[in-house]
């Protein structure tokens, strides 16, 4: 009889059904998973059953790649990047995995026997909405590129039970609906309860002397929560590397408090369970000022502590001590949300692993790097000391000590400059006391970066100026990028085919190769097919719009699109001022010749952000009036697409003719939607803000519609005392437009509805819409004229696509790897019984 050990060392032979990539094997596997995993006979299977069976079939094909990747990393003891992010907006997995595995066509055929189309099953997937917008989506693009570039990496975050809310529009207003993305199960994740860790909260600290006579601190917590990791494989494009996204779910350490239970307090016995589980319950939808929400701080500390403990466990598996921790791990802080990690790594090294302060600080500082994603001062995170100290008493002590030592050094550099000291301090003591998370991140990191050239310059000049003066060598720029696998190949198969037909498929991994398309701008046949493709994609979107909101739009009109979070600085209402201007002109002159346009909006507003919600209502109100005005028919249409998310983005970007990137200069850190539009052949109308500047540099000024004040002009105008009323009184058309909105014309005679919005513009206008209004209107006239010459427009569109190579997230990730993380690719060799990717 074989002993138990000998069965374990036997190589696991994986039957072909779980690994084979040919159509017949996939067909068999699909039937098998439908029966044995989903528990359904084919004749009773719902669309969702088939989707689930297919998802498991694909997951089976990822597992060998995934496990081999992890095993290779362990064996080779590689240097690993950990991307710490409170948000990962990954989008649906199925189509992406098919593309990266190279088995889209095989699966298409295999699925056809079910009588369904693969596209229908793909549409069945509930997207994990574990992020708000740009920052979370960027993290997802970076995971894709890390795997594609074969870089050892882990994405650490939170497995929110409820992601970003679903948006419905009722009577023009946003209504938030709970996002139950897990209700039918998530086939892409695997729970790893055996790798659970514990996290302390509350209580107090006490000092003691250890057996060696060392003075130490001990944290006696109020309660302890367990973190359970849920792992999702992130496969690279046509490589064997599958990295892990590890998201933490909070659970109670003991489901029942037996003391209470035995006393007959049954409900009290589950209290602790309820509170513990609340920590990973819901994503905060606010990019607005944090109102000191304690649960949010609990979330941040929870996932950061879990992740650092996890890294330490893995490290000690292969290394005798943590002395080399910073040599094996590079930890990126995605904004300040995980910046408490600086103090937590200090705590783990000192309290748990008994390092002395200086050694621990050296390791910590050499482990972390920090990316900033916002210039809005109100979005810079700070936690009231009262909350922080109560929830994380030991971390509070450590932060005080970090600050104390930091300020001692500063005093030597700037003697007698108390202003400097208080501006640099990690603790804000100007009024109520706060912990400034960006300061903690700056002091505790070896590198600090912005996400576009202008943004980094403004960080150096403004938001983080004092830190830049102190350690200029830590600062660098890493302009954002997006993954062409999702944002072109997966979402725009027609364009992908047209490009590949001309220049081969290398561009998918080397986006600079798109330059090759420039050779075809003068090819009339190519431009013709380019236009036909665009028309077909627009017709698809038109169908979707009709189905979703019951509005008929004409695919031959100019599709003018603005999709992104709704925020005053992004100025969706400036777009509305343009629409109302055109409407007003048409009312005054019904025979006016304008380029027919369909304006498409999408985006969610933070639930507590009154003005953003009013902007949504305004868009819908204007849409309704225009839609019901027969004199406008065929010339203007306005559509607000509800529930804008990754899935909807994939439909919308390919269908756009014009991309609206109209933020006030100096406010948008980078933008990433701007890149997705342009890659799909839309032209941009935009300000000199964020990455727009670099996009314009790449595509050429003559292929970009520029308007508006520059950042310097915005600053100068503000400094000189900006008065929006001057514009209101001196620009007749602008005044007519604002008056029309204020009059109740778009709100069934209710002149109070949009009053707050109109008054805010006339009397305050913090984002300077009125100052940019005329320039925007004039620029839009140029757009309209340009669109009339379709041959010319196609040229510009092709050139835009051809010159977008820089904005692949592969380029961004290479720069992070070389300049911040100093990590190398690691090739993954599959066991030879596994069929290689197509
Ligand atoms: C966004 C920025 O607003 C956007 O300009 C940038 O492209 C994106 O990050 C990725 O870098 N910021 C957020 O989504 C956000 O939540 C607050 O910022 C910290």
Describe the structure.
The strands form 5 sheets. Strands 1, 2, 5, 6, 9, 10, 11, 12, 16 and 17 form a 10-stranded mixed beta sheet that branches. Helix 24 (572-588) packs parallel to helix 25. A hairpin with a 2-residue loop joins strand 3 (166-170) and strand 4 (173-177). The chain is built from 35 helices and 23 strands. It is α/β, with parallel strands linked by helices. Mean pLDDT is 95; it is low at 1-10. The two termini are 42 Å apart. Helices cover 47% and strands 14% of the residues. N-[ethoxy(oxo)acetyl]-beta-D-glucopyranosylamine binds at residues 132-135, 138, 287, 335, 373-374, 379, 451, 480, 668-672, 690.
Brief summary:
The chain is an alpha/beta fold and 838 residues long.
Characteristics:
single chain, 838 residues, alpha/beta, ten-stranded mixed β-sheet, six-stranded parallel β-sheet, 47% helix, globular, disordered N terminus, binds N-[ethoxy(oxo)acetyl]-beta-D-glucopyranosylamine
Low-confidence stretches: 1-10
Strand content: 5-15%
Summarize model confidence as the mean pLDDT: 95
The oligomeric status of these chains comes to single chain
Major sheet characteristics = 10 strands, mixed
Shape: globular
What small molecules accompany the polymer chains?
N-[ethoxy(oxo)acetyl]-beta-D-glucopyranosylamine
N/C terminus separation? 42 Å
List the helices and strands and how they pair.
Elements: H1 4-9, H2 23-36, H3 47-76, E1 80-84, H4 94-101, H5 104-112, H6 118-124, H7 134-148, E2 153-158, E3 166-170, E4 173-177, E5 190-191, E6 197-201, E7 204-209, E8 215-220, E9 223-235, E10 242-252, H8 258-262, H9 266-269, H10 271-278, H11 294-318, H12 325-328, E11 329-334, H13 341-352, H14 357-365, E12 368-371, E13 382-384, H15 385-391, H16 393-413, H17 418-424, E14 427-428, E15 434-436, H18 437-443, E16 445-450, H19 453-463, H20 465-470, E17 475-477, H21 484-490, H22 493-503, H23 524-549, E18 558-563, H24 572-588, E19 597-602, H25 610-627, E20 636-641, H26 646-652, E21 658-661, H27 673-679, E22 683-686, H28 692-699, E23 705-706, H29 711-719, H30 724-730, H31 732-742, H32 755-763, H33 769-788, H34 790-802, H35 809-821
Parallel strand pairs: 1-2, 1-11, 2-10, 11-12, 12-16, 16-17, 18-19, 18-21, 19-20, 21-22, 22-23
Antiparallel strand pairs: 3-4, 5-9, 6-9, 7-8, 9-10, 13-15, 14-15
The site of N-[ethoxy(oxo)acetyl]-beta-D-glucopyranosylamine (7GP) has 18 residues, from helix 7.
